[in-house]
Amino acid sequence: METRINYILTGLFVVLFGGLLLGGALWLSLRTPAKNLDFHYVYIDESVSGLNQDAPVKYRGVEVGRVTEIKIDPHNPLRVRLLLAIDRETPINENTAATLVFQGLTGVAHINLGSRRKDAPPQKAPATEKYPVILSEPSLLTRLDEDVTNLISSLTKAADNLQAFLDHDKSRMVDRTLKNLEEVSTILARNSPKLEEAIQAAAGTLGKSAVAAEALPRLLETLNQAGTELQVMARELSGQGRAIGRAVGDGAQDFGVMSEGINRRFRDLTVAIQLLLEQTGNLIGALQRNPALIISGPPAAAPGPGEEE
After folding, report:
1. Is residue 68 packed enough to be buried (19+ CB in 10 Å), middle (13-18) or exposed (0-12)?
2. Which of 201, 227, 171 minimizes the C-alpha distance to 295?
3. Domains of the chain: which residue ranges?
4. CB atoms within 10 A of CB 215
5. pLDDT tens digits along 179-215
6. Does residue 227 register a pLDDT over 90?
7. How distant, in Å, are the alpha carbons of 233, 275, 277 from that of 239?
8. Per-residue confidence (pLDDT) for residue 280, from 0 to 100
9. pLDDT (tens digit, 9 = 90+) per residue, 143-157?
10. Is 55 in contact with 66 (CB distance < 8 Å)?
11. pLDDT at 34 > cutoff 50
């Protein structure tokens, strides 16, 4: 009797537990609507470190599926094959591309899909593949790594070219400088006698200029004294001429002609003396402005109309 009761309790427990499981499954099925999924392959040529199975698949940031399989391509061991389960309503076409995206600093990755053209034809499975193949594009990190590598390579090449150019240009400049120095040395050696004569002539000219400069004040002083004495003598002669004229006029008429001749001579002498004084003053001013006129002489006169220089 007791054994029979135990069988009944066991059967009731199994029925109740099975009913609970079935009810839970029905409840979950009602809570989560079924989706129609399509499968697609993606071949990636870079490392998929950080991408896990069941990682999300997003289309422009919207989750549309999951990564169901991650394997090495059996036909090409240099790339990885991913199997994606994607909602059938996702607008995937021949222009759609898949990119590996890393989330922040965690290193966790997911697959992001995107299309450049919305009017592209839908994808079809190739004859050699079980599912359609979505093209892949390099991730941001891969592009940055390639760009940085190319930039460093370009900078290195530019630095090498610049160094080679500078070395060549520097060597050429040194050779040119040495050649110019050699030419200058040859010219100096060939013209050393002429240089010595020119130096001696310049020294003599400087000596003469110094002597002339020392004698110039004395010459100017002598000319000033001569001018002063000529002015005094002219005034005395003029006075004497006037006195003689008055005496002749008062004394006798016979001396009229003589008086006029003497006065005329005195006037001519006075004019000559004044002209001499004027020329002397001009000479003194020119020498004061340019003492080198004693050596070089006056400048050449400008050519007149029709004359050639």
Report:
1. middle
2. 201
3. 37-138, 209-296
4. 11
5. 877 887 777 677 777 666 666 665 565 555 555 555 5
6. no
7. 10, 19, 19
8. 66
9. 777 788 888 888 888
10. yes
11. no
Q: What is the DSSP string of the chain?
A: -HHHHHHHHHHHHHHHHHHHHHHHHHHHHHHS----EEEEEEEESS--TT--TT-EEEETTEEEEEEEEEEE-SS-TTSEEEEEEEETTS--BTTEEEEEEEETTTTEEEEEEEES-TTSPBP---TT-SS-EEEEE--HHHHHHHHHHHHHHHHHHHHHHHHHHHHHHHHHHHHHHHHHHHHHHHHHHHTHHHHHHHHHHHHHHHHHHHHHHHHHHHHHHHHHHHHHHHHHHHHHHHHHHHHHHHHHHHH-GGGHHHHHHHHHHHHHHHHHHHHHHHHHHHHHHHHHH-TTHHHH-SPPPPP-TT---
Q: How confident is the model at residue 255 (pLDDT cuts 50, 70, 90)?
A: very low
Quickly count: other Cβ atoms within 10 Å of residue 57's Cβ.
Answer: 24
Are 57 and 67 contacting, i.e. CB atoms less than 8 angstroms apart?
yes
Strand partners, 100: 111
- Whether the CA torsion 142, 146, 147, 149 is positive or negative: it is positive
Query: In this model, does residue 11 exceed pLDDT 80?
Result: no
Rg (CA), the chain: 61
Per the model's pLDDT, the better-predicted residue between 291 and 77 turns out to be 77
**Residue 111: beta bridge partners?**
57, 100
> Packing angle between helix 192-251 and helix 256-289, nearest 10 degrees?
150
Could you tell me the two tokens for 175? Answer: 């050779």
Whole-number Å distance between alpha carbons of 124 and 122: 7
Which amino acid type is present at position 201? A
**Parallel, antiparallel, or unpaired: how do β-strands 96-103 and 133-137 relate?**
parallel
Split at pLDDT 50, 70, 90, the class of 32 is: very low
In whole numbers, what is the pLDDT of the chain averaged over residues? Answer: 73
